[in-house]
Amino acid sequence: MILPQSLTMDFSTGALSGADVEEVSRTIADLPGVFGDEAARRALAPVTLVYRVQSHLPVAAGTEGGLFWGTTFIQPGLVGDEYFMTKGHFHAKRDHGEYYVACSGEGALILMDEERHTRFEPMRPGSVHYVPSNMAHRVANTGASVFSFFACWPSDAGHDYDSILRDGFSARLRCISGQPELVSTP
Ligand code: PAN
Ligand code: ZN
């Protein structure tokens, strides 16, 4: 028996469609303490969309052996001179990795290990990025249009946002003379 395909992805935009697609949005109001310049964040309209995530979560979070699939869409923009970006997290199970694949626009994957060494990888349509275990990860939109990428991660990885909210990354991706530059935080 051939079952109808229930989930599809548009490869040019990363957009998912189907019955089981969940979506969350993060606005400027949802991201206190995420950007370096808190006054610049508060000066922006609270309803400004920063990013949204579409996910396909076929098993319950925490299930061992399953996989999750999702696309993140980050709007172009700056908070001060810092690019719009995701909150960022370690996986709660630190030894669980992830794949990211860029779909459209220009972005950067910012990675920090547990010794707080931070680096970034430019993301361009078609670039594939392995997020190794024990690495905090976040993505910034470094271009002028929506940046989208899709991700596949283990269903029992979990997300540790608190460590990042408390300690941040050791460097921030800032727009300096129009170019992304990783600048150490004091
Ligand atoms: C991604 C992220 C997504 C949004 O699916 O969850 O890009 O970023 P934040 O979760 O940091 O807000 C992923 O890395 N999942 O593990
Ligand atoms: Zn992750």
Shape designation: globular
The CATH topology corresponds to Jelly Rolls
**Helical content (DSSP H or I, runs of 4+):** under 10%
Strands side by side in the biggest sheet: 3-4-5-14-9-12
Give the structural class: mainly beta
Write down the overall mean pLDDT: 96
Q: Just give the CATH class.
A: Mainly Beta
Question: What would a concise description of this structure say?
Answer:
This protein is mainly beta and 186 residues long. The chain contains 2 helices and 17 strands.
Word description of this protein:
There is one protein chain. The chain has about 190 residues and is mainly beta. The chain has helices at about 40-45, 160-165, and strands at about 5-10, 15-20, 20-25, 50-55, 65-75, 80, 80-85, 90, 100-105, 105-115, 120-125, 130, 135-140, 145-155, 160, 170-175, 180-185. A 6-stranded antiparallel β-sheet has the order 3-4-5-14-9-12, with no helix packed on it. Bound molecules: 5-phospho-D-arabinohydroxamic acid and zinc ion. 5-phospho-D-arabinohydroxamic acid binds near residues 70, 86, 137 and 138.
